[in-house]
């Protein structure tokens, strides 16, 4: 029997797992630095939760993992985290403003293709209870810090659902929802197809020309000094004041979810695919029976960021020491003793449990991402010393088994 992963899903092993862990750890630390609290919800939810949020009713079954349990209850695997957050906010008294982060796997029943998976990781942050744009500004800052921690420079495109509604009120009155769904496909299909889709719904195709110009002054001439225009101008001003020069207005940005009510945004790098996005959703909590609660959030596509970094050849080093003996005459109890002493002093390490020769151990250590190998021979044992080999530079030195000295060596920049 040949066992494989489920179609559209994948395993992460070795360097892949280390890279995934690095992304998650960096993001988690940054979220905590901004005061976001961890948040856990089940991967399985009642289907009704997504049926309501998706605004497409029963049709959403085709896009998600839907099933019935043994009690004939309709259930689904989560396809993102926002619906679960809204459910909790509607049923519990959260102290506002409430800031949370959630990192985990979500599931969609898309047709599997290159870099589009049915199970993928996402990292979300959300702020509940803040009406003004300071919440959006903080989220921009968090995004910047997350990407900077990975050596990446994000480019964020933003728009306002209020402004889009102003424009659609002129060119697609009464068909705003259909027009919004079509506009959200603009970066996925060609202009001709978009026009055909609009014509089929009897929507004025001049809409495309207006938003493609991406000129706020032109839009103002059409819609006047509307609430949407004010929101764009206010957000641009705040971004400038906070040196967020990677955030740019883009009139073509729609974002597919219909629950967005204000600023929406999308994150890209080097004109590549979207690596995340989000926006304001002030009405979602009340959709589930809770009170009207201002809310804004972003979902960072951890799996897409992983693929981007892996393509760049990102390798993860383990900041520790792999310890081995020169031959099988070196007692394992001595290696264990040294290993434990180093761990007590917060030096990550592991020992050769098998008894390989030195060249095999070095090869093995390199495959696991270690930059340093500690070698113990008979002479080293007698003198209470260890030979530390730097695998990147190729040099080695004999030092006392002193945790502080060893820590200094392995923490050096290579």
From TrEMBL:
Assigned keywords, A-Z: Aminoacyl-tRNA synthetase, ATP-binding, Cytoplasm, Ligase, Nucleotide-binding, Protein biosynthesis
Entry GO CC: cytoplasm
Catalyses which reaction(s): tRNA(His) + L-histidine + ATP = L-histidyl-tRNA(His) + AMP + diphosphate + H(+)
One Gene Ontology MF term: ATP binding
Aminoacyl-transfer RNA synthetases class-II family profile domain location: 1-331
Subcellular location: Cytoplasm
Known EC number: 6.1.1.21
Binding locations of L-histidine: 80-82, 108, 122, 126, 255, 259-260
Gene3D superfamilies per the UniProt record, alphabetical: Anticodon-binding domain, Bira Bifunctional Protein, Domain 2
Record's protein name: Histidine--tRNA ligase
Organism field: Candidatus Iainarchaeum sp
